[in-house]
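$ ./design --mode recover --in tokens.txt
reading tokens...
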């Protein structure tokens, strides 16, 4: 049961919605049917993520091939909560009767508040991300939508680490600008919308989500209340500080190791360091100050516990080998060899590695690498790379590998590329 304050917050919220689905009819018929069902004007756009901004009276319908050819996205403007409930119910019913969803389909819920109704400071642009992340009950969402727990499009936001290897005090004594949080959009919450005075929740969706009205509404209310509570009570209390201290205690050994190579050796005996493939302590210790920032990132952002790190003194680049990183928030700017990874990878050269439920952006993938249930954006994929049930897009990439299942949304491919049971939407042969 909700308190009066909670009910007031729910009914003072403004909700914008994005529905991804497939329809049995063409776009004109979908427009006509949804317009009649929702009693709204609907504008059809020719491309995804069009410039038109919908309102509470004019929605937009546009193609979205992220889930395959024929996927459609209905985007609403912000509406009062009561109206959004009705829109959700009617849209889900229409999809049940006239379309379908698969595991790549989702609902995005955008949340803001009508400050005039509440009479309290609820401007989302002032949200303290740290306060929200510390207190948001993410497990409740994953329990309601268990298939989304490992989704590459709705990854966990429970990621807080110090920005540097210097010890950070608790939030009651320092700015949260000294800590690192999730930032890109492919997490369960997209915080990049804060300057526009709302945040986007991306957790909900999956196959047959149109049959889960009650669960979707429960989660929408959960999102609203979580955001509201962080806005009206932005001060870090004793419980918040305790939570952060637990996180910092977990990273204590990492922070200590930042300062000296010998401390690193003692704290992380299973992570071997090399310079130019040499293991001499004297050489490694000499170069350690040049290595430690990237090592700090691998320990905190990638969860490295065991593996081999080599520093190339000529190029200043590092190679990671024989590591298993299954809770990896981000790896960037290194070579990856003979690893197993689940997470975000940016600007890396990857060799003979297994990638599961991962997102790769501007990477180069080379021979004997296996990619499963992942997203590959603007990347080079060489021969002998196998991609299974994955999603490839980006005109700056080149694909020469093997692809089984999945979606090749947009990009360039050579004559070496092989596709089996893959949905190819837009491809340029080079």
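writing sequence...
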């Amino acid at each position: 049961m909700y308190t009066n304050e909670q009910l007031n917050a729910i009914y003072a919220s403004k909700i914008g919605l994005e529905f991804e689905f497939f329809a049995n009819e063409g776009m004109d018929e979908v427009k006509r049917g949804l317009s009649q069902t929702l009693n709204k004007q609907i504008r059809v756009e020719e491309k995804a993520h069009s410039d038109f901004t919908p309102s509470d009276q004019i929605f937009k319908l546009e193609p979205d091939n992220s889930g395959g050819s024929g996927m459609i996205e209905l985007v609403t403007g912000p509406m009062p909560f009561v109206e959004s409930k009705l829109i959700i119910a009617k849209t889900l019913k229409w999809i049940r009767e006239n379309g379908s969803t698969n595991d790549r389909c989702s609902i995005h819920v955008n949340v803001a508040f009508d400050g005039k109704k509440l009479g309290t400071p609820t401007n989302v642009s002032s949200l303290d991300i740290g306060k929200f992340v510390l207190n948001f009950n993410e497990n409740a969402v994953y329990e309601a939508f268990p298939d989304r727990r490992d989704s590459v499009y709705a990854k966990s936001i429970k990621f807080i680490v110090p920005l540097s290897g210097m010890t950070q005090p608790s939030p009651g004594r320092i700015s949260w600008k000294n800590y690192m949080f999730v930032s890109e959009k492919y997490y369960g919450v997209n915080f990049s919308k804060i300057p526009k005075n709302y945040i986007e929740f991306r957790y909900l969706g999956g196959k047959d989500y149109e049959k889960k009205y009650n669960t979707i509404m429960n989660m929408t209310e959960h999102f609203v209340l979580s955001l509201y509570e962080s806005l009206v009570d932005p001060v870090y209390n004793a419980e918040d500080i305790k939570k952060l201290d637990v996180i910092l205690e977990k990273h204590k050994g990492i922070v200590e190791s930042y300062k000296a190579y010998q401390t690193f050796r003692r704290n992380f005996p299973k992570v071997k360091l090399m310079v130019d493939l040499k293991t001499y302590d004297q050489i490694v210790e000499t170069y350690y100050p040049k290595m430690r920032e990237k090592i700090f990132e691998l320990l905190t952002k990638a969860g490295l516990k065991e593996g081999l790190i080599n520093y190339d003194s000529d190029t200043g680049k590092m190679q990671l080998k024989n590591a298993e990183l299954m809770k990896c928030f981000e790896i960037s700017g290194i070579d990856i060899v003979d690893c197993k990874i689940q997470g975000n990878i940016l600007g890396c050269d990857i060799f003979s590695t297994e990638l599961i439920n991962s997102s790769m952006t501007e990477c180069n993938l080379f021979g004997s690498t296996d990619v499963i249930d992942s997203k590959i954006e603007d990347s080079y994929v060489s021969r002998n790379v196998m991609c299974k049930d994955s999603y490839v897009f980006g005109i700056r990439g080149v694909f020469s590998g093997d692809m089984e299942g999945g979606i090749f949304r947009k990009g360039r491919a050579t004559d070496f590329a092989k596709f089996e049971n893959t949905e190819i939407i837009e491809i340029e042969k080079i």
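exit 0
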